[in-house]
From TrEMBL:
<feature type="binding site">
    <location>
        <position position="96"/>
    </location>
    <ligand>
        <name>substrate</name>
    </ligand>
</feature>
<comment type="subunit">
    <text>Homodimer.</text>
</comment>
<feature type="binding site">
    <location>
        <position position="224"/>
    </location>
    <ligand>
        <name>substrate</name>
    </ligand>
</feature>
<keyword id="KW-0028">Amino-acid biosynthesis</keyword>
<dbReference type="InterPro" id="IPR024084">
    <property type="entry name" value="IsoPropMal-DH-like_dom"/>
</dbReference>
<feature type="site" description="Important for catalysis">
    <location>
        <position position="192"/>
    </location>
</feature>
<feature type="binding site">
    <location>
        <position position="252"/>
    </location>
    <ligand>
        <name>Mg(2+)</name>
    </ligand>
</feature>
<feature type="binding site">
    <location>
        <position position="224"/>
    </location>
    <ligand>
        <name>Mg(2+)</name>
    </ligand>
</feature>
<feature type="binding site">
    <location>
        <begin position="76"/>
        <end position="89"/>
    </location>
    <ligand>
        <name>NAD(+)</name>
    </ligand>
</feature>
<dbReference type="InterPro" id="IPR019818">
    <property type="entry name" value="IsoCit/isopropylmalate_DH_CS"/>
</dbReference>
<comment type="pathway">
    <text>Amino-acid biosynthesis; L-leucine biosynthesis; L-leucine from 3-methyl-2-oxobutanoate: step 3/4.</text>
</comment>
<keyword id="KW-0963">Cytoplasm</keyword>
<feature type="site" description="Important for catalysis">
    <location>
        <position position="141"/>
    </location>
</feature>
<dbReference type="GO" id="GO:0003862">
    <property type="term" value="F:3-isopropylmalate dehydrogenase activity"/>
</dbReference>
<feature type="binding site">
    <location>
        <position position="248"/>
    </location>
    <ligand>
        <name>Mg(2+)</name>
    </ligand>
</feature>
<keyword id="KW-0460">Magnesium</keyword>
<keyword id="KW-0479">Metal-binding</keyword>
Amino acid sequence: MSKKILILPGDHIGPEIMAEAVKVLERVDSLYSLDLQLDHALLGGAALDATGVPLPPETLAKAREADAILLGAVGGPEWDKVEAARRPEKGLLGLRSELELFGNLRPALLYPQLAAASSLKPELVAGLDILIVRELTGGIYFGEPRGIRTLENGERQGYNTYVYSESEIRRIGHLAFSLARQRDKRVCSVDKSNVLEVTVLWREIMEEVAKDYPDVTLSHMYVDNAAMQLVRAPKQFDVLVTGNMFGDILSDAAAMLTGSIGMLPSASLDKDGRGMYEPCHGSAPDIAGQGIANPLATILSVAMMLRYTLDKPEAAAAIEAAVSDVLDQGLRTADICAEGDTRVSTSEMGDAVLRALQS
Ligand code: IPM
Ligand code: MG
């Protein structure tokens, strides 16, 4: 049966990296007879400029229909002055929330060919393979009430609400534990339960969920310590599970361990495994239009889509092998290029992956 894939290129380097990922997607579609139907829509700043809102109803309708969504990146300084409710990021957050994509998988995997590009010493990161499981539709990102109010003394006060219900914690817990089962069977839950009640509950529910997975080991860590441990001895972790904001921050730190955030894909899944796939990096306005962005995170997001939503693990593995192959050939975009490497453009990198897929 044919599967619908919605393509949302987004802003700045978004369309550049997406063009390469779509080339790869179309190639695996024909190599593996996947019968995919690709459609496009606007999201973020591009949507705001064209329609006045960052998540147009047409995009949301197409997103609801799609089996999977492939997203580039949204945002940029030209929309900094737009009011909070219509910012490009709201388009992304709205999509996550409307589609209930609560489970965000952010693997931090070091390709051995890139060990020298890591900000840590090669011996600290050699063989690194962490999976951050970030809760994506709750926590302080979505808690109400929120806003900026004026107090009686005339001073303004900004406020947000950090809330998690038991069911929200439980479902992300189950996702993390079931993923750990396919890996090294260790889950570290990250919280701030020495200060925040919401994460006291988080810790309690994680303990409860753990009982269903006697073969998986659960540990707990405060978020400040987790940030330190990630840059001190990152290989101690297998699966990290945490809330929305802590996950946002820790996943950027983990990304740098692997050499470049330009290498990291992500998946955002709903309870049925439908998902949105996107690189972990942003829209990089500073390098847009120069053809130098690294398309590999988006290409690897296609691999995650094949694995988690389309259930085509052999096609996913073929893409991952092709990426490894081009790195073996010494081909590098600017962000991961060191002395002795061959520097290639965004589209040359995409073409190299296509060639490696073919062989
Ligand atoms: C991410 C990004 C988003 C987030 C922004 C663009 C809203 O940083 O996906 O990590 O904070 O979730
Ligand atoms: Mg982030």
